Amino acid sequence: MNLKKLLYILIPTFLFSSMEIALKIAGGQFNPIELNFIRFLIGGLALLPFTIIHMKKNNVKITGSGWGRIALTGFVIVVLSMTLYQLSIGMAKASVIAIMLSANPIFGLIIGFVFLREKLSRTNVLALILTLVGLLIIINPFNLNGAMGIMLGLLSSIIFGVYGVMSRVYGGKIGLNGLSMTCLAFLFGAGELGVLMGISHISAVSSAIPSNYSEFSNIPFFQGITLQTFPLILYISILVTGVAFGLYFLSMEKVGILQASLIFLVKPALAPVLSLLILGEAMTGNTIFGIVVILLGSLVTLMGEKMAYKVMAIFRRNNPEAHQEVDELEVVKDKLENSELAKGRKAAEEAVRTKLEEKSEENDVTSED
Length: 369
Known about the structure:
By secondary structure, the chain is mainly α. The chain has helices at 3-27, 32-57, 64-91, 94-102, 104-115, 122-139, 147-174, 178-199, 203-208, 230-254, 257-260, 262-278, 285-303, 305-318, 323-368. Helix 5 (104-115) packs across helix 7 (147-174). It is globular.
């Protein structure tokens, strides 16, 4: 992998890993709902020029149902997932919430399996089990600290997994790539959140909200933006939200989906270290152990079938009596590959036969003339 491709992975990895820290710092100066609105509004606008170019280049025309799908996707990611995520950061350690969000690809696998009937391989099941075990170790249900924040962070990660599936399915139907779908979902989600923020200013609504939840009453739109906070807002909105998500989708196109998965593989390990250095959040023993388990789960997801075949090879060497079972697996694999080759040969023969028949008909017409 050359330096340019490596940067497509390293830059979004650092930005995603610093996201919780920046939001934690800004959370003390802004209403959490307001910060969520500003972040996705500016982040979506930063991606808009690239979206317009893509739509013009590919002549994408979005129908009414397409806009409806985009609006629903924006509601799921901005209004639901990221609002819960922002609230969870104010209630729990930034390092723990970062690890929670990094587990969203695993939840996406579960959602795809349940609702879209997508197949789960044995390696995916193993990765799922390891990730869930790692989350339980970090959460430590027998000694919960900041339980509400952890639960909100976990719920946010699950909904983020739903968003990932929706974005992939709806984007394919509409004809948008990942970056364009993300941009429009951000803008629609920010608009929907802005409507809800406006409703919170209605006296009947604001008076009905309990005092313990004052952050949901009379939510400001751009309050707190000063010369001192403006650089932080730009970092969160443009770099952490717009550029990070944009480069993530570009990395999938430039280096492949598997290599792009390294972003979420490294984040659970890097985010706690940055939280320790910048915020002074100490890492407990169970957090470190949970991180290791989650990294193993992510590694299994990344390696996929390659790891499975390596394990089978080791098993074969250490268990000679099991050769027959392993050989049967390899025979099945060879049959599948050969069947694909046979299909290819058959298609080629059909094409040649059709061409010869067309040429023969042309010769017959010429001879008649």
